[in-house]
Amino acid sequence: MELSSIKKIAVIGGGTMGNGIAHVCAQSGYQVVLIDVEQSFLDRAFKTITKNLDRMLKKDRITEDEKNVTLGRISTALTLDAAVDAQVVIEAIYENCDAKREIWEKLDKVCKPGTLFASNTSTIPITELAAFTERPADFIGMHFMNPVPVMKLIEIIRGLETSDETSAAITALSEKLGKTPIEVNDYPGFIANRILMPMINEAVYAVMEGVATPEAIDGIMKLGMAHPMGPLQLADFIGLDICLSIMEVLYEGFADSKYRPCPLLKKMVAAGRLGRKSGQGFYDYKK
To answer: Which one of 92, 118, 201, 274 is least enclosed by Cβ atoms within 10 Å?
Structure first.
């Protein structure tokens, strides 16, 4: 598919990643249909996109007209049937293989031949997801970074059957969105999470073993390694439940003890200390 053939993009899931993807697609000139299962989710997503555009407007990065045009390109829907006339579908729901399977099996029946399928999964093998459809050659991983409107990287993951044409089209689309696409092959955690999450996991081990406080660990990584955010602060931002889920995928995928999730990480998730979204993780956000 040529880049010029892409006019409409369907984004499945209105959460943090989905609304960010919808935002950048609409701002880049594409018609977008944002699909989720409840109207309240869609209303919240649209509110977030508006808020982020207002922030850009305040910083003189866009004009009032550009903001309104961007919002005007976004429609919402409660059923996957709304993806029927999209040339690209980007799935951005939570990291659950069964849930993704249900969506892709339905989309495979709804969407026209030649529609490109992309998953924003951060850990689940693309080859496995592609096998839920009858078009694995048209299926690819398109892993955006959070927050989507700010972060430049898109990890492009080729499944075993992904065609060169699909990879080229999605790479060109990524560049049109103002992002930098970097292609990797299909292994658990790909590159970003395969390297990042063990570092976070090791930082949690250092806390558990009493080597240093979270503040000290983060301070050392920020000042000594020039990281903009320490690993434990970053874990709180991502969500400790998500970090644990990714570590479990790595541990299961490689059957290697170096990916074993830290017991303290598992304990904090069990206690509901998930980071920013719950008000408490390695740091207290309730104040």
So the answer is: 274
Amino acid at 216: A
Q: How many CB atoms lie within 10 A of CB 261?
A: 20
CB 110 within 8 A of CB 83: yes
DSSP H/E element including 157: strand 153-158
DSSP state at residue 261? P
Domains located in the chain, CATH noted: 3-185 (3.40.50.720), 194-276 (1.10.1040.10)
The pLDDT score that the predictor gives to residue 287 is: 75
pLDDT given at position 95? 87
Q: How far apart are CA 47 and CA 65, in angstroms?
A: 18
Taking the whole predicted model, whether its pTM rises above 0.85 is answered as: yes
In 3-state terms, what secondary structure has residue 231?
Answer: helix
Helix/strand/coil (H/E/C) assignment for every residue in 26-81: HHCCCEEEEECCCHHHHHHHHHHHHHHHHHHHHCCCCCHHHHHHHHHCEEEECCHH
Cβ count within 10 A of residue 91: 25
- What residues are annotated to the active site? 122, 143, 155, 193
Q: Is the dihedral of CA 23, 29, 35, 39 positive or negative?
A: positive
Instruction: Produce one character per residue of 208-242: b if its CB has 16 or more CB atoms within 10 Å, e if not.
Output: eeeeeebeebbebbeeeeeeeebbbbbbbebbbbb
Helix, strand, or coil here: 86?
coil
Residues of the chain below pLDDT 70: none
262 neighbors 205 (Cβ within 8 angstroms): yes
